[in-house]
Amino acid sequence: MAHLAITGLGLVTTVGHDVVTAYGALRCGMVRPWPVDFEVPADDGNANTLLTAHPLRGITDGFQGMGRYLRMATHAVEDLLHHASLHQEGAGFWQGTSLYVGLSRTRNAEIDFYDELLEEHLVGELASRTRLPIMENRRRVLFRGHAAALWALHEASVAIERGQTERALVVGVDSLLESDTLQVLAASRRLKTNLTPRGLMPGEGAAAFLVEPLARARARKATLQCVVEGISLGQERESRASGARSAGVALSEVIEKVLPRDRAIASIYGDLNGEDARAEEWANALVRLSANRALSSAAQYWLAASLGDTGAASGALSVVTGARALFRGHAAGGDVLIWSSADTGAVAAALLRRAESPVSSPQQHGVRR
Asked: C-alpha angle 146/121/77, rounded to 5°?
């Protein structure tokens, strides 16, 4: 894999609408749950109550469908442009850039045609609204659910290595708060309620990151957030979508492939969301990885504890948060491991390390970024 650097970060979450604020809130464990307009049983009787979830109040209010996704994705990309000071870059910079958007497939099988609408229009509308002249043949949509961002990162790394693109802008965006999605989750008893306390809390959000060759990033004196050390993809034989429980075989394999031989892991960011099936998969993977000492002292972070289940946005949120932790020196003593697991069985892992460069240190800039 080519030596890649992450040089831009953007976030919009329920605990902060930009990368600096959101990262600080996530680091201190801030939570902002809120009742949403969806009724669930309050007890074993006939009483109902409003579902508690993690809506992006002030961003998605009144928006549904593609409009909701565009609001979140646009906000995350504009935050990246501001945070990385990329507004002044000319058309040539963006014409050499590819755009990848990671999504989940429509959870309601009755409206599966909506995936085609998103694939045809979302990426183009996002490029238009953010005024980025990214060429149409360099825009991609990946329906990989929770694993979408890491799959997009892998595709981008291959395209960069082959000289097909100079850099890539990866965006993960999703919402589990639209009425049809909530109905599907409620019908399958996956929502966390008084009756099912071990379930997920629906969330929504978007994250964006810019990745490019390390040498090119240094040549243009970009601020290096971190370096991508490795990426690995896999597919579990049995998926949660089919009703099976995962043994964590493929997940442990992709993690094993990216673990460093001579360094420790400082932090792990993964996909636990309160559901037993995900916890079981991670527990099984840990057993299979128990002989590897790189994980023995790693701190484990689950962003869903603050944000709820953010679907296809979760992987990108983990990448941005992990990169920010390395840049700020909050993952001292080791690398950052990111793992993602989709309900369809797609799994992925990535390893991030601190960029050892004068331009990567926040102290060199004299400002808190």
From this structure: 60
CB count in 10 Å sphere of residue 16: 19
Q: How far is CA 351 from CA 18, 21, 47, 364, in A?
A: 24, 24, 47, 25
User: What pTM was estimated for this model as a whole?
Assistant: 0.94
Q: Say which residues have a Cβ less than 8 Å from residue 248's Cβ, sequence separation at least 6.
A: 236, 280, 281, 282, 283, 284, 285, 286, 287, 288
The CA distance from 313 to 327, in Å, is 21
Rounded CA-CA distance 52/197 in Å is 12
Q: Which domains does the chain have, with CATH numbers?
A: 4-219 (3.40.47.10), 228-356 (3.40.47.10)
What pLDDT digit, counting tens, does each position of 234-277 carry? 999 988 888 888 899 999 999 999 999 888 899 999 999 999 99
pLDDT digits (tens, 9 = 90+) for 78-126: 999 999 999 989 999 999 999 999 999 998 877 778 889 899 999 999 9
- Whether 48 and 39 have beta carbons less than 8 Å apart is answered as yes
* C-beta atoms surrounding 137 within 10 Å: 7
